[in-house]
């Protein structure tokens, strides 16, 4: 058994980058109340996939009507997120499916419609498209078209998304924007282990179908202290993770790590046109949107009213990305307050490239340049 | 355990290399393609709604030797790709074909380059079988300019238009309906060519496959659906994922044939039979019973969901190259040493190709933006940050 685990660990370590764990972008250290009202103690430092594993564990443990299934999920999944769950909760609750995404999601919708918590895994977000029809036409509209008679609110679809450095065309994409165009769905993307656990539990318990994208580049890389017990974090509430006065940056998931680095560098940069404050650098406010649909416009609006500038960054191609929606909404609300055009630093309008991933990605320097350009507009 | 119980089926004994020798018992030159050797396939074919072909396959000394060298070359290429991946010269995802070589070789021996082949992401050796070069393969694997897709596709996206190899598709099962489209075009043009649409046992459970089957049968398309059954869809054994792992029967109204995919001659016979069949009667499914020695992809050690004994058992009992080696030796077409020398030569060829591929430059940076649309007929991005889009209309 031990050797099997070692092998499995090796498998996932090759898929994700094998690097030393780093602490980045940790959640705020506020004491969280657990779902039964008790104060949770800070737990051990764990990485993101272990946090997901804990959340799934709690979901199965706290609700006997919850089920987890997907390709290779019974063995722990390619990213180890479901390790040990089949052993503990049985193969009737945690099981492998055939390789058929459309079938997996359709099945999950039916299971959820019977009042269960169906937690379906799509192995890579790139493979979610065969299930697109089921998600968009069946899951999202079930409640509406039946006049609230039926719903599949217990449905949560987990899928790892995003770049890992060498994933090429079909293991790197960020398809969140497609789903943000579908009323009836919720779209959630966490940035860190603690966030992932709380948001995943909230997504599973939310009475609406949720598409939960996990930043696969951070599965092993992101490490932070995660409370041990059962807690949820609110959906559709953005969080200001870094306060500032000159520009608002909005992002989600793994991209926040890059944006945070750009914020740190911007602080050292000088605002060339403002002689009085030249030495102070650019003060950036960074917001984690967390839930993309329905999104927290108020938090972003309040921040932009303060700073007068907005930059949005995501890995998905810029055209038609969710950044466009944020930009349009904020321009509608804060037109007179804006001091510069809204800036979008995103993936390029190309398929996700094989060898040119570094050029495609919205890197720290691209963000830094855009920050300077916007502040000095 | 269930795993071992089921997997023991994989170790069907390789029927002794029995063959009726129809030539004098003397050394032949390997280039001899006039002498006929009749070889018996390892196991009989099993048909579904069709009369299976005979087990006796005609071959020549030349063909036998070619089978050996071609398969050894494929094997060596995949092993080299494995180490290149581990030394991080190949990025992206990489799926190796070693163990399944007989499928490509046998198929190519029965068809022409005007017949189309379309497959999923385990495509390196099929590309080689279609006449692709080692240099193109390794360059593509390493994302170099000399690659068959100019370094823009990588491992999963090999193509060769001049040999009707439609390549290299990333999404499980998605290529099969495309294969039906190819077959329709062939039928429409009244060509006597057929399409081989290949998929794995994992993909056999995708809904698209059944949609494709229905269309192919409805319109009598010359489409041969080749299920390369290597018994594991990623980490899941076939019987865990499929109610009926008899994939050749899954077409119901579409006839099927079960073939030992580890026996190049069985594959050759089946493909010859299938080609004749589909041109007259519409689609057929060929289930190739085969085995991959490597894991699903490079990130899968391939030993967590199957036993090492099973892998080494298949290597010993059913290896496609060993099978040909035994035939060559049995017919005294070459000595063991000569075959070893051939393998050495192949090893050198592969090493040379790798060295050459490493010399090939990365694609130009501007290539990132080309081929998204046809030049001049779509949207192009401009500016230093490529954020400005301009639509060009014809």
Kindly describe this structure:
- The complex is a heterodimer of chains A (377) and B (394).
- Chain A has 377 residues and is an alpha/beta fold.
- Chain A has 2 domains: 196 residues, 3-Layer(aba) Sandwich (Rossmann fold); 137 residues, Rossmann fold (3-Layer(aba) Sandwich).
- Chain A contains 13 helices and 14 strands.
- In chain A, the strands form 3 sheets. A 7-stranded mixed beta sheet of chain A has the order 3-2-4-5-7-6-12, sandwiched between helices.
- In chain A, helix 2 packs parallel to helix 8, helix 9 crosses helix 13 and helix 10 packs across helix 11.
- The longest helix of chain A has 15 residues.
- Chain A is globular.
- The N terminus of chain A is likely disordered.
- By secondary structure, chain B is of the alpha/beta class.
- Chain B has 2 domains: 362 residues, Thiamin diphosphate (ThDP)-binding fold, Pyr/PP domains (Rossmann fold), CATH 3.40.50; 27 residues, no CATH class.
- In chain B, strand 7, helix 7 and strand 8 form a beta-alpha-beta unit.
- The radius of gyration of chain B is 22 Å and the shape is globular.
- Chain B starts with a helix and ends with a strand.
- The N terminus of chain B is likely disordered.
- At the A-B interface, helix 1 of A face loops of B.
């Amino acid at each position: 058994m031990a050797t099997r685990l070692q092998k499995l660990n090796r498998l996932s370590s090759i898929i994700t980058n094998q690097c030393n764990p780093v602490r980045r972008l940790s959640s705020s250290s506020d004491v969280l109340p657990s779902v039964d009202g008790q104060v949770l103690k800070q737990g051990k430092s764990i990485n993101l996939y272990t946090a997901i594993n804990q959340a799934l564990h709690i979901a199965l443990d706290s609700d006997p009507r919850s089920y987890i299934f997907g390709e290779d999920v019974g063995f722990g999944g390619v990213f180890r997120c479901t390790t040990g769950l089949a052993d503990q909760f049985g193969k009737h609750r945690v099981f492998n499916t055939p390789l058929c995404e459309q079938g997996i999601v359709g099945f999950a919708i039916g299971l959820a419609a019977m009042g269960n918590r169906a937690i379906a895994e799509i192995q890579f977000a790139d493979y979610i498209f065969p299930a697109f029809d089921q998600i968009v036409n069946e899951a999202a509209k079930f409640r509406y078209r039946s006049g609230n008679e039926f719903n599949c609110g217990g449905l949560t679809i987990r899928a790892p998304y995003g770049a890992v450095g060498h994933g090429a065309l079909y293991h790197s994409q960020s398809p969140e924007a497609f789903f943000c165009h579908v009323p009836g769905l919720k779209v959630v993307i966490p940035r860190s282990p603690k966030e992932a656990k709380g948001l995943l539990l909230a997504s599973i318990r939310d009475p609406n179908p949720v598409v939960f994208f996990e930043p696969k580049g951070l599965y092993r890389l992101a490490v932070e202290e995660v409370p041990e017990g059962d807690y949820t974090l609110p959906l559709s509430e953005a969080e200001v993770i870094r306060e500032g006065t000159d520009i608002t940056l909005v992002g989600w998931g793994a991209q926040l790590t890059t944006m945070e680095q750009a914020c740190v560098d911007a602080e050292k940069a000088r605002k060339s046109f403002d002689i009085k404050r030249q030495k102070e650098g650019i003060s950036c406010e960074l917001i984690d949107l967390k839930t993309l649909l329905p999104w927290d416009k108020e938090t972003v609006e309040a921040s932009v009213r303060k700073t007068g500038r907005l930059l949005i960054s995501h890995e998905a191609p810029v055209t038609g990305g969710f950044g466009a929606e944020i930009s349009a909404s904020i321009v509608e609300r804060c037109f007179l307050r804006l001091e510069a055009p809204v800036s979008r630093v995103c993936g390029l309008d190309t398929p996700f490239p094989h060898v040119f991933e570094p050029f495609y990605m919205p890197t720290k320097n691209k963000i830094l340049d855009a920050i300077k350009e916007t502040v000095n507009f | 355990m269930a795993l071992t119980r089921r997997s023991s089926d994989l170790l069907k004994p390789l029927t002794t290399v029995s063959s009726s020798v129809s030539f004098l018992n003397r050394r032949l030159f390997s280039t001899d393609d006039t002498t006929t050797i009749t070889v018996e396939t390892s196991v009989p074919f099993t048909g579904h709604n069709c009369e299976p072909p005979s087990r006796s396959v005609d071959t020549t000394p030349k063909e036998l030797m070619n089978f050996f060298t071609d398969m050894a070359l494929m094997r060596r290429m995949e092993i080299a790709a494995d180490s290149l991946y581990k030394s991080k010269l190949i990025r992206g995802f990489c799926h190796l074909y070693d163990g399944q070589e007989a499928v490509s070789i046998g198929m190519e021996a029965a068809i022409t380059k005007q017949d189309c082949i379309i497959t999923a992401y385990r495509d390196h050796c099929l590309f080689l079988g279609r006449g692709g070069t080692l240099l193109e393969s390794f360059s593509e694997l390493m994302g170099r300019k000399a690659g068959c897709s100019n370094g823009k596709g990588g491992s999963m996206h090999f193509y060769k238009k001049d040999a009707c190899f439609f390549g290299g598709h990333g999404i499980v099962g998605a290529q099969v309906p495309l294969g039906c489209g190819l077959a329709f075009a062939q039928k429409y043009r009244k060509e006597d060519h057929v399409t081989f649409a290949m998929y794995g046992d994992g993909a056999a459970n995708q809904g698209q496959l059944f949609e494709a089957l229905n269309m192919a049968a409805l319109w009598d398309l010359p489409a041969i659906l080749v299920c390369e059954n290597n018994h594991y869809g990623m980490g899941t054994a076939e019987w865990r994922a499929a109610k009926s792992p008899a994939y050749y029967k899954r077409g119901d109204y579409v006839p099927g044939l079960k073939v030992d995919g580890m026996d190049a001659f069985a594959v050759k016979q089946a493909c010859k039979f299938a080609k004749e069949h589909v041109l007259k009667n519409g689609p057929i499914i060929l289930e190739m019973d085969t085995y991959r020695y490597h894991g699903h992809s490079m990130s899968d050690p391939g030993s967590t969901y199957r036993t090492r004994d099973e892998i080494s058992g298949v290597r010993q009992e059913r290896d496609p190259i060993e099978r040909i080696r035994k035939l060559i030796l049995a017919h005294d077409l070459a000595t063991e040493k000569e075959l070893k020398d051939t393998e050495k030569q192949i090893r050198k060829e592969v090493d040379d190709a790798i060295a050459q591929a490493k010399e090939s430059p990365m694609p130009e940076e501007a290539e990132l933006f080309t081929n998204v649309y046809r030049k001049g007929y779509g949207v192009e991005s401009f500016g230093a940050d490529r954020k400005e889009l301009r639509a060009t209309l014809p």
